[in-house]
Amino acid sequence: MQGMRGAPVRKPTLRIRLLGLVGRDRLISLASPLMLLLLWEALARTGIIDVRFFPAPTSIFATMVTLLKSGELWHHTMASLQRLALGSIIGGAPALFLGIIMGLSSPIRALVDPLIAATYPVPKSAILPLALLIFGLGEGSKIFMVAVGVFFPVAINATAGVLEINKIYLDVGRTFKASRWNTFRTIALPGALPFIMTGVRLGIGMGIVLIAIAEMIGAKSGLGYMIWSAWETFAVEQMYVGLFVIAIIGFIVTAILNEIEKILIPWRR
Amino acid sequence: MLMRSIEADNISAGHAIRVGNLSKRFGPVTAVDQISLDIANGEFFVIVGPSGCGKTTLLRILAGLEMPTEGSIDVVVPAGSTRPVSSVVFQGDSIFPWMTVWDNAAYGLRMRNAPGAQIKEVVGHYLDRTGLTKFAGHYPHQLSGGMRQRVSIVRAFANDPEILLMDEPFSALDAQNKLLLQEELLQIWEEHKKTVIYITHSVDEAVILGDRIMIMTAHPGRAKTILPVPLARPRSVMDLQKDPIFGDLVYQIWTSLREEVQHARKLDEARGCKA
After folding, report:
1. Which of A44, A103, A242, B205 is deepest in the core (most CB within 10 A)?
2. Global ipTM
3. SS3 state of residue B130
4. pLDDT tens digit string along A39-81?
């Protein structure tokens, strides 16, 4: 952290940079997915690949337009997004507090660390039946699954983030008689924020995986449900639309989190 | 807690800090051994010693960051004072990278819930004194090392403590910046003449800044001698260089210190450490 501060300030840039690449490399990066789609289209039209499993991108796109017009896609997307947002807050907020407090207090760390170490490796998807048992088939079980997925990475990264803070900053807080709350608010939280943002990113990624799985079982809405019902009715194009929208959500969420990080962490170049 | 704050009705009388038989041991290692000190109110007291002589440990005990193994520290606080007992300027970068210059400088006052108007006035004053006003909204990574250390000094002064504790604040700076900051520090200090305990390994710096200089021995860290600095104030860092008293004192302290450095090196070699 100390070495970083000596570096020159990077001016905010409006140029869109894809993966930090420039010029020719950026063009290649943009072209490669397009090339794949073109190849896919060509192979589908010439019948080299089985369109029952790999329908042509144009027909997937046509289905997408139909689903958009009927409002069905919007309905499922919003249902998933709502669960994702609620679950992220319900899982993320307590994880943030617990994680930072664990970083600040070694007795609390000693108390909670073994519990996290023991529960973290359990595959989150494996607790879906338990979630359904406890929260029923409604919204509760889906939101719970997202919350569980977000909780661990945020808590673990928040603790690591606080432990990574140069001890001198905590000494400064002590010499200025910062209260516990002020130590939390002015030192631990901002100091751990770069790690916390990584945790949030990982957590929401996990949340997207889990919401898709959770919606496949016992849901009547959401992108996971849409994909599952497409399988049941063998509407393969619809299945691809669902997968595509989930991928887009992941991409947009990452982009939004990057912007939030720039606003929250202005001291990072 | 061995640190006691004693209320004095008459601040001008006697010492501001009395350290009695202070020792600190880390397991078998004695970092600070039986140090006793009386520091007068408004005195600029410098502690100089070879590296590893326990001077930072001594300062950390005075700052309340470490507990002494034995001994006592009495800080005399004027009756009715609401000011904090001490503020520390740390060695190296210690200003918060996530706060602007202004927020860093205001930190101490905010932590003790000073009124907004007071924060504005005091922080504004010290930023102005150190030429940092136009950088108030900057983050530390946008500043040079010298400017960051200025912020650290402003943060300590703005908190308006009874005593200022400084731990080699300029050791990481280049020679030119060091000279400038020493000069600035003297100017700010002249305003209120707070009691200062200043730690350094630089003999020149000790003589430039101090009213009295304590030379410490290494392994264990003991007080070897305390020398007064009979140089008039206010001092100009440049003018001091040609003052014969300055030269004599530097020579005298160096001679005393050299024994200690050599002694410390021998001990290190005997223990198989890198000298």
Report:
1. A242
2. 0.89
3. coil
4. 999 999 999 999 889 999 999 999 999 999 999 999 999 999 9
Over chain A, what is the mean pLDDT? Answer: 90
Residue B141: which of A7, A169, A173 has the nearest Cβ?
A7
- What region, left, alpha or beta, does residue B150 occupy, with left being phi > 0 and alpha being psi -120 to 50 degrees? alpha
Pick the CATH number of A71-264 from 2.60.120.10, 1.10.10.10, 3.40.50.10800, 1.10.3720.10: 1.10.3720.10
pLDDT surpassing 50 at residue B192? yes
- Contacts A178 to B, Cβ<8 Å: 111
| Each residue's pLDDT tens digit, A206-231 | 999 999 999 998 789 999 999 999 99
Interface test mutation site (partner B, options A10, A162, A170, A176, max chain B beta carbons within 10 A): A176
pLDDT at A3: 38
Which domains, ranges and CATH numbers included, belong to chain B? 3-85+164-169+193-270 (3.40.50.300)
Distance CA(B34)–CA(A99), nearest Å, equals 42
Q: Over 80: is that where the pLDDT of A174 sits?
A: yes
Where are the strands (E) in B118-217, listed by range? 163-167, 195-200, 212-217
Query: What would the two tokens of residue A148 be?
Result: 């569980």
Under 8 Å CB-to-CB from B144, ≥6 apart: which residues? B177
From chain A, pick out residues whose CB is under 8 angstroms from the CB of B112: 176-177
- Widest CA span in chain A: 75
- B182-217 b/e (C-beta count within 10 Å ≥ 16 → b): bebbbebbeeeebbbbbbbbbbbbbbbbbbbbbbbb
Q: How far is A194 from chain B (nearest CA, A)?
A: 11
Q: CB-side exposure of A51: number of CA atoms within 13 Å?
A: 13
Distance CA B96, CA B186 (A): 25
